[in-house]
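Per your request, structure below.
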C-alpha cells in the first residue's frame, strides 16, 4: 500500500519537501491510513503535519471520536485541532450538503490558522467509483464523470487525496497488518445518505451480477474523462472575455461541447463550483440562449440565475 501511496503522490505532484500539511482525520480507516502513510514521509520529505478533526455532533457518542484522534495525535507527536458543530437541528436543505460545506470551511480556516499550504483528505478508489455512479444517477456530464480530483485548489488552499488510487480493501489490510483499530461510524451502516445506499446495495449488486471489478472500471472512467475534460476546459477558456457573462453572437456559433463548458465556467465563477448543476440546467440555459426572448430568466440552484439581454447571457446571484 505504501508503494501505491507514493506512486499517487509522485504522479500528481501532491507533496513537496518541507511542506506543512493539514490532515483531516475522522478516526475512521481511510483517514488513519492517510495519516500513517504521511507520517512515513516525515523524515524522507521533511514535511510537517497537523491533524484536524471535526465532530459533526449529529450522533450519540461522536465526542469519543475526537478523544480517539487526540490520543493518536499525542502518540505520533502531531498537534490536533478539534472542533464540534452546533445548531444543525435548525438546518435548511440537504444535511449531506450542509456537512460538506461545514467541513470545508473548518479545514480551510484551520489550515490558515496553522499556516498549512496543503489539506490532505482520505478519499480512496472505492469513494471515486461511488462518486461517479452517484453523479450518473443524478444526471451529469463530463464534469461529473471526471469524479474526485487528486489535487484541487479551493479558496486558495490545495486539497490533496493521496489514497485516491488505493482500494478500501488495501486500506483495511494495511491497518490490520499494523494492528491499528479505527473508529467505525455507525451511520455508515445506515441508508441515511445516497452514497451509503450506493455503497451498501448498488455496488455489491453490480459486482455480483455484472462486473466484479466495477469499482476499478468506474475509477478508470473518472481518470480518463478527467484528462479529456481538463483539455477541453483549456480550449474553452481561450478568449472567453468577461467571466460572468456569455456573448450571444460569439458563443452561439460554438460547438455545443465548448458552449456547455463555458456555461459551467460562468456558473463556477459566481458560485465557486458547479455542484447541483445537472444536464437539465444546461439544456435550459441553451434554450434561453437560442430560443427565448430578451429579458427571460432561468433560475439555477444556490440562488444563481441567468438573464438574457440583447447581447449577453448574464449570470447573477440573488441577495440572501
Amino acid at each position: 500500500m505504501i508503494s501505491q501511496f507514493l506512486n499517487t503522490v509522485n504522479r500528481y505532484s501532491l507533496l513537496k519537501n518541507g511542506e506543512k500539511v493539514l490532515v483531516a482525520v475522522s478516526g475512521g480507516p481511510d483517514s488513519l491510513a492517510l495519516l500513517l502513510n504521511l507520517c512515513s514521509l516525515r523524515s524522507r520529505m521533511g514535511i510537517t503535519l497537523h491533524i484536524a478533526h471535526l465532530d459533526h455532533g449529529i450522533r450519540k457518542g461522536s465526542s469519543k471520536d475526537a478523544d480517539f484522534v487526540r490520543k493518536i495525535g499525542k502518540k505520533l507527536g502531531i498537534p490536533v485541532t478539534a472542533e464540534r458543530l452546533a445548531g444543525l437541528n435548525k438546518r435548511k436543505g440537504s444535511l449531506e450538503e450542509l456537512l460538506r460545506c461545514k467541513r470545508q470551511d473548518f479545514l480551510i480556516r484551520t489550515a490558515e490558522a496553522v499556516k498549512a499550504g496543503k489539506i490532505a483528505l482520505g478519499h480512496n478508489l472505492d469513494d471515486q467509483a461511488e462518486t461517479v455512479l452517484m453523479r450518473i444517477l443524478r444526471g451529469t456530464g463530463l464534469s461529473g464523470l471526471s469524479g474526485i480530483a487528486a489535487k484541487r485548489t479551493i479558496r486558495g488552499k490545495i486539497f490533496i487525496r493521496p489514497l485516491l488510487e488505493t482500494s478500501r480493501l488495501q486500506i483495511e489490510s494495511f491497518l490490520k497488518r499494523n494492528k491499528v483499530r479505527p473508529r467505525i461510524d455507525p451511520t455508515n451502516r445506515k441508508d441515511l445518505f445516497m452514497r451509503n445506499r450506493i455503497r451498501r446495495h448498488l455496488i455489491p449488486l453490480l459486482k455480483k451480477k455484472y462486473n466484479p471489478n466495477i469499482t476499478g472500471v468506474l475509477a478508470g472512467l473518472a481518470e480518463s474523462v478527467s484528462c479529456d475534460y481538463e483539455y477541453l476546459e483549456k480550449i474553452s477558456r481561450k478568449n472567453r472575455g468577461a467571466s460572468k457573462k456569455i456573448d450571444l453572437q460569439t458563443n452561439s456559433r460554438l460547438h455545443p461541447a465548448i458552449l456547455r463548458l463555458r456555461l459551467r465556467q460562468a456558473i463556477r465563477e459566481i458560485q465557486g463550483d458547479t455542484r447541483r448543476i445537472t444536464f437539465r440546467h444546461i439544456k435550459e440555459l441553451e434554450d434561453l440562449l437560442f430560443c427565448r426572448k430578451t429579458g427571460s430568466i432561468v433560475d439555477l440552484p444556490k440562488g444563481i440565475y441567468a438573464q438574457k439581454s440583447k447581447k449577453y447571457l448574464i449570470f447573477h446571484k440573488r441577495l440572501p
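The chain is about 50% helix and 15% strand.

Regards,
D.
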